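Sample entry (341 residues):
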Amino acid sequence: MYSVVIPVYQAKDTLTRCVQSWLSQTESDLELILVDDGSSDGSETLCDELQKKDSRIRTVHQKNTGVSAARNAGIEAAEGDFLLFTDSDDYVAADYLAKMAKLQKETDSDLVLCGFHHLYEGADILKLPEKIKETKLLALSEEFLSLYEKSFLNMPWNKLYKRALMGRFDTSLSLGEDLLFNLDYLRRCERIAVLSEALCYYIQEEQKVTLSSKKRKNRQMLSQKICQATEDFYKEHWGNTSSMEGAVARIFTRYMNEVMDECEKLPKDKTLTYQEKLQVIENYAKDFWVQTRGDSAVFLYLDYRILWYFLKRKQVRMVYLLCVLRTFVVDILHRIRRRAK
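Predicted structure, serialized as tokens:
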């Protein structure tokens, strides 16, 4: 049997769609575990109503302690041999489970992952991983880096796990806990398989761009922790390879991407004055890792490469101006996309 864990918090408007996408699966040997994480918008009642309509649904209620705690509660309640996750505002294709289960059986893999649709601002952005022919983890050093760089390892909701191998999510973290969970799980894996199809629908609302100074500092610290953990994982499995230096640089790039992302969000942050925004950029420019390792980053996007040129020279005002221009262009593209729908 396959257990599907769905954390639920203030999701009254989207939960039914999510649950229905699972009840409509062509593979029917499943149970849905709805973990109500202290909702107060009616989601808690909706979970119970859905449970009454289908015997495959079970509901767990708990105080609001966060998505990681909700997922952990779902793991504890699960009875299936295999486990999957979905967020309550997302949904899956009707043949998602059948195709994931088929690939798992064919390859005898401990982990199966697939691509997804990234639905954002009226756009359907297709995210497809490359198909992996070899399934033994120790033979997949390059494939691991590619999956990491393209963010296919970050989340739990595009994966099929063996319940017997699962650890737990770190409830003390507010960033990167999903990736750390997956790295921990991979340590117990011998074989993985990749399905180069987009079978999940990940819906991203307009993100809040405001971070307090404390949260911003914590975010950098957590980003460093995630980067270090990933480098350690790579060294454990492939530390003797000749490409080690290049691999570490590619992993470190994610940390630099976090820095660039936060810089690019600053123009929309209404809680900071212009001078305070410049100070944030200056702090990033003075960051120890940025100073000592920044040039090793392998930027895939042109805007990041341009920002880095000025950031490493501590040309703070120019960095901010470029971020303003980028925000202006992105907003225009989003308006055009919405009108075209």
